[in-house]
Amino acid sequence: MTTGLANADTAPRQDIGADGFTPIARGEPGEAAIAALERDGVVLLRGGLGREWVDRLDQAIDEAIALAGPDSYTVAMPGEPGFFFTDNFMWKKIPAFRDFVFDSPAADLAMKLLRSRTLNFYFDFLLVKEPGTSSTTPWHQDHSYWPVNGQQICNIWTAMDVIPKESGLRFVRGSHRFDTLYRAVSFDPRTHHPHEIMDRPLPPDFDSLDHEILGWDMEPGDSLIWYSRTFHSAPGNFGSRRRRALSTSWFGDDVTYNDIPPGTGPASRGEDLVQGGPMTCATFPRVR
User: Fold this and answer.
1) Where are the beta strands (DSSP E) in 118-180?
2) Domains and their CATH numbers in the chain
């Protein structure tokens, strides 16, 4: 792990999997993809989940929006035609999302990419940016929001639509090696994140710093996988298409519960978890 921002991006600026990687078999990312993730903090898998899962989730997303739960979140700026919608824990109420967690290749991909012997599912997170949405996603580390300790944590962010690089996620290459955990920030520029941990520094403005930024054009079914400490952001959606994606988060062997203040992650804290103990419970089930 690095000792500061200036030295974090030390990997050679070459061979970054510019076109992504294709899994070598169902649930098998291949060693080249694993090595890219470990080097860069993020990797793109082309078509890793299979078209059948894209089709199933495509139908379920409208149901998820209609059944938006108490933790759903909408950012709509005055005078704009679009909006940014998020919700989580769809797997608890919609069969297609539950089937995705337990039966799709996602869990096997996560376990292999983390080089883990076991795997727990954390939560699912639906993101919809309608056309004409200026709302951006600020630079952040997912780990800052979550009550966890450990390194074997990843997200699998799967495109449900064609997503051009210009409106897709952006990553700071090598930022998973930063030794600092930064403050959780609100995705709504008009508000502050509740229960901010003030002794953490604010995230840097990587757009004004000399770090290599990675991004890709994506097709439906392509998946971005990154570590929980990898810095990422996203622009607004000024194109003519929706930008829908499903993110799922996964824990490996070394992850334990960290009892930070409520309000810094998904609302559910699971059942009977204790500081420094394992994450396995009904809400965060072991799946492998």
Assistant:
1) 120-129, 137-140, 148-149, 153-159, 170-172
2) 40-257 (2.60.120.620)
